[in-house]
Design a protein that fits this description.
extended
Length: about 55
């Protein structure tokens, strides 16, 4: 717990239950956690947007 507190930040977000279920299903189909799925999506969006500049 000390390691996590020192090395990571938490992000809290509210989503509709249907959205969470959809995201969980997508993450499961890739055999990754929901957190990892969300991180990948955000990073892909950032990379995509940088290419547009």
């Amino acid at each position: 717990m000390k390691y996590n507190k020192k090395n990571y930040e938490r992000i809290y977000m509210y989503v509709f239950p249907q959205e969470k279920e959809e995201w969980q299903a997508a993450a499961k189909s890739k055999d990754i956690s929901l957190s990892e799925f969300i991180k990948q999506c955000v990073n892909e969006k950032i990379s995509h947007d940088k290419g547009r500049q």
